[in-house]
Design brief:
The protein is mostly beta strands. The protein has 4 helices and 32 strands. The strands form 8 sheets. Strands 4, 5, 30, 31 and 32 form a 5-stranded antiparallel sheet that branches. The termini are far apart. About 35% of the residues are buried.
Length: about 450
Amino acid sequence: VVRLFLNIPWRGPEKRSTIMLLPASSSNTVLTHHLLSTKPDPVSVSSGINAEYGDDAASVSDAESVEETAQGKRLRLARQYLDKLETEQQKTENDSEINRDLIAHRLQQDVLAEKGKLETRVGKRLCVLENKFTLKGHRLSPTCLAITDTHLFSGSKDGAIIKWDLSTGKKLSVVKHDSKKQILALAASTDNLYLASGGQDKMIILWDIATMTFVKCFRKHRGAITALAFRRNSHLLMSGSVDRSVNLWNCDDKLYIESLYGHQDMVTGMDSFLQERVVTVGGHDKTLRLWKIQEESQLVFNGHKNTVLDCVSMLNEEHFVTGSQDNVLAVWHIKKKKPAITQLQAHAKGSWISAVAGLKNTECFISGSNGGNVKIWACAENYRSMECIRSIEVTGTVNSIVISQDNSCFVLGVGQEPKMGRWWSNKSARNRILVFPMAIEAEVDR
C-alpha cells in the first residue's frame, strides 16, 4: 500500500512536476520520478479571455507583469469574465420574472372571464360617439332586438323580422312567421349560426342566420313567447312565456329538454351569460329568479313590493340589474336576497322603465323608458351606489336595448307603443331602430 502525493509548485517557466510514491510505513527508500513539464503558453491559455475583453486584457505594463504572476493574471481576468456573465444572467432572470408575472396575470384574467367573474372598471371612460344612425323598416312599433358581430335583427308588432348589416345599416332580408302575428322576442347565438324568434303564435322558430331560412319550429308553450336567450358560446336556448314557464331547448339536436316552473305570473324578461344559468323576472309576481340548470335549483329574490318587474340583464355571473314599471332600477348580487342598490325615480317622473342592458364584465349598464331619454349608469366599486354618467334624449318608448359583444355600439328599438300592449301611443314618436357607436377610452396611469 502506498500513498500518492502530487506536488506541482508553479514558480516560473522552468517548473517541474514531481510525483513521489511513498510506502505506507516509514522508510528511507523514496522513489522519485521527475517529469519535465512543458512551458505554459500564455497566448493559448488566455485566448478565450482576450477575445472577450479585447486589448484591455493584454495592456498590462511590464511592471505589473513582474508583480502579477501569470496565474494571478488569469485568475483576475477569469473573475472579470464571470462577473460579466453573472450580470447578464441577473438581467435575463429579471426580464423572465417580469414576463412570468405578465403571463400569470393574463391567465388569471382569462380564468375569471371564463367564470363570468371578471370585471373591468369602465366608468366615465365610456364614450358615446356622435355618428349615430337610424334604421327604418317597420310599420309598427319594434318590440325586440338581437345582435351578432356583424348583423342586427329586429322584430316588430307588424310580424316582420328584419336582418340588417350592422356596419352599413343596409336591410338584407325580411322574414315572417306563417301566422304573421306579432314578434315579441329574438335571440341570436354567439357563433352567428342560429336566430330564434317567438311571439303571439306560441311558437319558437329557429332560423339559419346566413341564409335566413327556416330550420326548426319548437312547440311546447301554451302562451305567447315573451323572452328568449342563448347561453353564450353555446346552442342552449331558453324561452319564457305568458304561461309562466321557462323552457330549455337543445338547438344542436333540435330537441326540447325540460320546463322550469316557479313564477306566478308571465315571464317578462330573461338573460343568460357563460354558465348554465338563466335569470328571469315574473311581472306581477314581483320576483327575480336565478335558475341553476345543472343543480336543478332556483334562487328567488324579492325587492320590488308594489310594482311590475319588466326587464332584467346580467352584468356578470354575480350581478344583474332589473327595471320596473314604478321607475325603479335595482342592482342585485347573487348572494343577497335584497337589492344591493336601489335607484328610485331613475328616469323622468312617471316613467316606466321598459328595457335594460348590461355591458358584460363591467360595472356599467343602459336603461330605457317611455320618459323621453336613455341613461347610462355606472355602479360604485363596492356596489353600494350608482350614478348616471350619460343621458340621451329619445322620443318614444324604448322597448329593447342590445349591446354588441365587443362593446363597440348599443342599439335601441323605439316605438310609439309599449311592447306588450297599447296602454298609450305617442304619435310624435317614430317607429325606428337607433344605433349608437361607442368607445372605451384607454386608462391613463396617474
